[in-house]
Design goal:
Helices cover 13% and strands 28% of the residues. It has a single domain (3-144), classed as Cyclophilin-like (Cyclophilin). The relative contact order is 0.23. It is of the alpha+beta class.
């Protein structure tokens, strides 16, 4: 059964189909942070956080023709949840079309909370960033654009 997440933004909702079959650890991390059921360190206070991690965050990095990036409560691109986890690459998941949801990272096995959505084909990212979803519908794609 398909699993979905909705990113609520000031530009409208972005509905995401999550790829739990191919990236189960990444999807679980994303969903649990979003729901506030996963322990994390709040980067704003450096203390244990509670509640939905992503609430109130922004897309802090927007690069036209490439991607939008979010998931940092600091809104600057260097905040994270106080933990990292390994990559999950699957040969069926490629950056061969726009509107792919993937984890932002600083190298292998440095996934945390930050994610990005592509707006074009980005094959140079294959097997460097864990793909764990895609934008589901045209209305959501319009919001991303």
């Amino acid at each position: 059964m398909a699993q979905f997440a909705t990113l609520k933004t000031n530009k409208g909702d972005i509905v995401i189909r999550l790829f739990a079959d191919h990236a189960p650890k990444t999807v679980r991390n994303f969903v649990e942070l979003a729901q506030g059921t996963k322990d994390y360190i709040d980067p704003r206070t450096n203390k244990p956080g509670s509640g939905p991690y992503y609430d109130g965050t922004i897309f802090h990095r927007v690069i036209g023709g490439f991607m939008i990036q979010g998931g940092d409560p600091l809104g600057k691109g260097f905040g994270g949840p106080g933990f990292t986890f390994e990559d999950e690459f699957h040969p069926e998941l490629q950056f061969d079309k726009p509107y792919i949801l993937a984890m932002a990272n600083a190298g292998p096995a440095t996934n945390g909370s930050q994610f990005f959505i592509t707006v074009g084909k980005t094959p140079h990212l294959n097997f460097k960033h864990t793909i764990f979803g895609e934008v589901e519908d045209q209305a959501s794609r319009d919001v991303v654009d």
